[in-house]
Amino acid sequence: MANMGLGLGFEGIEEIDEAIKWIETALKINSENMAALYTIVKLAHDTADYEKGIFWLNQYLERHPNDPEMLYALSGLHLKSGHFEEVKKIANHILQMDPASQRALTLVKQVNRAQLKLKQQRA
Prior knowledge:
single chain; 123 residues; mainly alpha
């Protein structure tokens, strides 16, 4: 928790690289630290550097493959990264667990819109 506290402190003074270093240290000690996982996802979105968040969420999901909150967080990072096929896989996994999941259905719509927008930009 001390590492997590340092990470949050550095985030608070906008020393983001240092914050990420300490949050990752906390995750190396306990990769199931939910506060650290949520913080690394937030920092990934804040910095538009999604790969560290993807890495740590994948580490967590290896042990908890059916955690819908973390699956959804991972899909958001993949969506921002343009990894559309990964988002579709995750959405399908969530839908297998809960066929009525509105969040997963929204993910599919977001991917379709993003792919269409990218296709239009290329044309």
